[in-house]
Structures are given as C-alpha cells and as structure tokens.
Amino acid sequence: MKKSLIALAVVAASGAAMAQSSVTLYGVADAGIGKVKYGSGGTTPGNDASNKVEFQSGSLMTNGNSRIGVRGVEDLGGGLKAGFNFESGLDLDDGASLGSGGGFWGRAANLWLGGGWGTFKLGRTLNPSFYGMATWELTGAANYSVVANTFGFSGNPTPRHNSQFSYKTPDLGGFSAELGYIFKPDNAGNARWDVNAIYANGPIGVGLAAHKQKNGKLGYGVGLKWSFSNFALAASYNDKEKVRRGFSLGGSANFGAFTLTVDATRDTRNQLGKKRTNFLVEGKYALSKRTFVYAAGLRLDGTTNYGLGIRHNF
Q: How far apart are CA 271 and CA 183, in angstroms?
C-alpha cells in the first residue's frame, strides 16, 4: 500500500513538472515561380545562370525560406526559464535540406536561460544586427528586401552567427538592447561583437545596430518606422563595413487583406562599382492569419528580378 502511494506521488510530481514544460513544432512553407537575374540564387551579381522563369524555393524572389523547427521552454520557477531552438531549412523543389550554416540545423541551434533580468543565449542564432533591422524594415526581412540585399542587415553581410554568446535586456517600456560576442577561437582567430538598441512602442519603431570583427571594419545601420492609420513610412542609413553605404526610404499601405509596399535604396558610397539606386515593389494578399500570396519585383544593381508565390506559416 505504501509503495502504491509512493508511486502515485512520483507520477503526480512528474506530471506537475511536465506541465511546466512545453515543446512546439513550427515551420514555414514558401514557394512560387519567378525569374532571378541577380546571380545564381540571388547572391552574386554578374552570373545569369538562373535567368529563366522557373520554380522558386529559398531564392532571392521568395518571401522567405521554407523551414521546420522545434523549440521548447521549461519554467524553472521564480521567474527563471530555460529553453532551446533547433531549426532546419527545407527546399520545396526536391525536399533537400537547406542548412544555412552547412549543417542540418543550420538556421538555428541554441540554448537560452532567461528571467526578469534578461536572457542569455548560446549557440547558432540570428545576430543582434538582424533584429535591429527587423524593427523598422517594411517587408518583414523578406528574401527580396531591397535594404537587406543592398546593405545587409544593419550593415552586417550575414543575419546569423555561429558559436555566439549573447545577452538581451528585458523590455523596458519599449526599449531593449542586445550584445552578441564570438570568441576568437570560434571565429578563425578573430573575435567578433554585434550589438543593437531598439525602441518599439506603439506606432514608432527605431533600431540601431553595429558590428565589428577584429582586424575588420565597423558596420552599422539605423532605421525608423512610423505607422499611422493604414500606412507606414520607413527610412534608414546603413554602412556595410565601409564597402557600401547609403540610405533607404519607403512606405506601405494596407487596404483590408491587401498590402502594397514600395521601398528604395541609394548608395552614397560603393567600392564594388558605380553607385546604384535599387527599389522594390511588393504586393501581399492575406488568405488567413497564417497564409498569404505575394508578388514582388526587385531592381537590384542593374538587374530585374520578379516572383509570385504563396507562404504558409504553421
């Protein structure tokens, strides 16, 4: 009898502990048709290997990359929580894995610990520069974002870092900041830091971010978005490690389920070639809260690219 009571107590305690934990499977399915003239896969100018109308998945002219991920969180009590996030890219063309970092979990592989004092995160993750730009960028950091493709993510060429240690402050009336750091043994002998400061409260979103690698050049970006009624305006200034710098200006208008966005960038300095004016026109129609169709045209460094697709979030 005593053993039965003890077993029931253990089961009850285990159930209570499990009730404090949760694991979520999530993902994105995004594909369409389009034409990408800006390099093969949309990353390198001057290569017209993909200059044909074809199926698009994880390309320059899809809204985003298809992915599947799992994330979990455990309530440790006293306001303290622990969690993880693993995420893998997926090519809807043939079902192959698209690991942004070369591995299966190339999009995310990290562990975090957080509380009222903020959050520490360790592993492969989106860097602070990305979140700085995402605060004000009009397309939600789409693959065809004219700002990201011209200047990177607040001047950072990549949105993710390996082996990153980061600390993010709690939200303080709309203000937050994050500092990421990579030790030199984890980055080819060159330590790297990345930082942002964000204010997002009501109709105003402001993001400032900067990054630098040892023996490298400073990159930074600052942007502002102001939303009013059914409209939003955004402007920014970015310096991509003194190789390319300039500004952006754009706006979006919402008409019920349909959203129209126009965004443009202009170089004030470009060591890669002549100064460019790039622009994007995007239309999105929401079929539900999780699914929308989109059409976009992107003029990027002298090339014309376009796509038509559908995205479903789950």
A: 29
